[in-house]
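Let's practice the habit of predicting before peeking. Look at the sequence and jot down your guess about where helices and strands might fall. Then scroll down.
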Amino acid sequence: MTNTPIDETHQPISDARLPLLTRVKTEWKTILTLGSPILISQLAQMANGVIDTVMAGRASAEDLTGVAIGGSLWVPIFLFMMGILNATQPMISGHMGAKQLHRVMPVTWNALYIAIVASGIGMLLLFHIDPVLTLIKLADKPAAITSGYLAAFAFGLPAIFILITLRGLTDGIGQTKVFMLFSILTACINAPLNYIFIFGKFGLPAMGGIGCGWATAISQWITLALMSTYLHYHKAFRNFHIWEQRMLPTWGMVREILHLGIPIGFTIFVESVMFAVVALLLASLGPVVVAGHQIALNVVSILFMVPLSLGMALTIRISFLIGARDIQSAKLGARSSVILILAIAVFYAVLLYLFAEPIAGVYTKEADVIAVAVTLLAFGAMFQIADVLQVVAISALRGYKDTRIPMYIMLASFWGIGIPLGYALAYKDWLVPAMGAPGFWIGLIAGLSHAAFWLLIRLYIFSGRDLSTTLKAAADPN
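Done guessing? Here is the structure:
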């Protein structure tokens, strides 16, 4: 396996003698090639949530409520674990760049053990979710649906976490199209299973929202079986002997994955919690404001999928180049990607500024809700630029295996600046007369701008290091 040649069609090494513009174009093309399938994967995963929501809503309002509450409870667990297991991508990509293929499977197998343990913990939490439902005072019928939905969904957790681990392998070696195809397949399997279980077809009882949980769990296990078979037989992965060369866990490798991954998972978790807290704090301003806020947030979240996907591709690219000891290309890739993704953000900002009203009109026909959404989308234009800069910087730093300090920067930015400033501007007259919802958006922009500034400074420092310093930091991150 160590003599297997590297496929550089996915991760080309540019010639330093070529003109700068040519090398920049090579890096941009590589990021776009790696990132486009990641974007489609993200959209396919979002589609599963949309399918569950739409089909549960067709059953009843209580089923929709139960599934929605259930989703809000399991998503933080999923995001945290996804962040931890995503540490395998830069680790494997780095080994590919260094042509150390013999180190790929130890990373993968130890991550699989982490995924199995995590799924056990997650299942235990979801099986005992009733005290949380009592605490939030959810009505009896939606609570029973939420509990049943999560109990069924829990059986799919091992498959979900193992799939994330296998994604670390496929993405890490530059084959990002693999997970894209299986993400689309999952959505295609989930939709008919939802129909069967929710409405009771082929002699099965109608389960309502609880059927969404079973559909998700079964579709994930089917996808895992198919993807495992594909990885076993496909020529691009055959030389890794994924399932034949089983390995016992080693504490050193587990520790390395957790050391790199826990800050990633925690960063993603606190960001998701921040947006949930903002939504809760806005509730007292009334349904019109909440609806306008949700429209604006949904629009910027959809637009954000592109820079987020390119950022994930950048993590893979930087780690590969560091592994290949091509420090100059890593520097060029990191800094040129800031320009590329910033250009996308500026385009988004102009789009939101010029077409805010028709965009809001897609979501609702209520004039007062549209008015709120249009106001907030103007702030969303500025929000996009700050958010995109922080994601490209933190993604590049993950490629350099720098995750702990960026986590602290994000934590301070979100909870030390964004939420407190947003609350003060929205509800208090301390700085200016209370602004309502725009105050929270200004707070979020300030927090993200603070994060973007310090992350870009840190990226500038990291990307300017010499080879020996970079390799030493990558070998012993943080």
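How did you do? The longest helix spans residues 20-59.
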